[in-house]
Amino acid sequence: MMWRMFCSLFLLSLLARCTGDESLPEVTYSEQAPMDKREREALYSAIQGFVGDSWNGSDLYPDPCGWTPIQGVSCDMYNDLWYVTDLSLGLIHENSLPCSSSLEIRPELFELKHLRSLSFFNCFISPMVLAKDGWISFAANLDSLEFRSNPGLIEKLPETLGNLTNLKSLVVLENGFSGELPASICKLKSLKRMVLAGNSFTGMIPNCFKGFKKLLILDLSRNSFSGTLPSSVGDLTSLLKLDLSNNFLEGKLPQELGLLKNLTLLDLRKNRFSGGLSNNIERMQSLTELVLSDNPMGGEMVGIKWEKMKNLVILDVSKMGLRGEIPTGLTNLKRLRFLGLNDNNLTGFVPSELEALPCIGSLYINGNNLRGELRFSRKFYEKMGRRFKAWKNPNLCQPFEIVMSESQKHLLPLGVKPCT
């Protein structure tokens, strides 16, 4: 390998000397492998823009892809020369390079043409608008772009990010971005992961998911999105995780949700969805987590064949204004660990068969209009502890025979009166 690189470099040097061709890359030699000189200078300048002028890469890291690697920088070889492929800035690890409070994105960053992954963690603290220029330089190779925990990044995402059509992962998590999403985001059809959570984005979710056949994770939670959920969400047939929680979304859930047959997590909590539960939910039989709490949906649960959703581990339909009885189909969910039915308008008896669920560890039925006797065993109460809550059901009572001694009274559910 070393002999082949030496021969290649010798021929390049000889060819440049004979032809006067100045377009050939200048080379920086190391004991391991050469690095394109312009690439190294661009790397040093780009990093210096983030960590401060006092940082001198040529002295500290004379061989950044070889014997003296820089934390957060990875390289690969192209035509026997080293080029930067991954760049992570910010204190991701203890020995990572910290970003300066007066950082700048220098044009040299966009000269790293072989860059495949670029991430910023807790770098942008002071208010700063992300520049529009330069991003198209990464269009050919960049497949991962991340901005995590950068409160100083404000205003809108640049429209030019839509040029990164080979991007497979876009993570914009817990920054200060606001405004509507750029229309160009609809061009990123190679994405497998789109996480835009924890910002201040507003407006409607773009109705442009047709063609996003590779998308596995869509997380738009903890923003201020409004309007209805677009019907094109049904085109995300590969989707595994959909998290739209903590927004201001409204209207009825689209029928197209039922097309997401591979979905394992659906989290829509703390929105303004209405119109009752759709029986299309039962078509998503791969779901392990279904969280719809804190939505004024109303309606009843009995219209859904819950027994079809055998993979459910978490079901939270609390604080939704649900009416009617607790459906017996829930007693067939053998993998269920968490069941939240609290703070609704549920009536009727509590199915004692819920105790037989082998994995149940949390059951909340408090804040309803349930009636009759709680027919759970002392062993069930011992297992559940305070993870079983039934208070604020005026017509619900606890049979006397479950109480064996004064020392066991703490096992009984709080706030439930004894049966008379």
From TrEMBL:
It comes from the Eukaryota. SUPFAM superfamilies: L domain-like. Residues 1-20 form the signal peptide. Keywords: Cell membrane, Glycoprotein, Leucine-rich repeat, Membrane, Receptor, Repeat, Signal, Transmembrane, Transmembrane helix. InterPro entries: Leu-rich_rpt, LRR_dom_sf, RLP23-like. Its main location: membrane. GO terms for biological process: response to fungus. GO terms for cellular component: plasma membrane. The keyword Repeat applies. It is a single-pass type I membrane protein. It is found in: Cell membrane; Membrane. PANTHER family: LRR RECEPTOR-LIKE KINASE, RECEPTOR LIKE PROTEIN 30-LIKE. This is Leucine-rich repeat-containing N-terminal plant-type domain-containing protein. It comes from Brassica campestris.
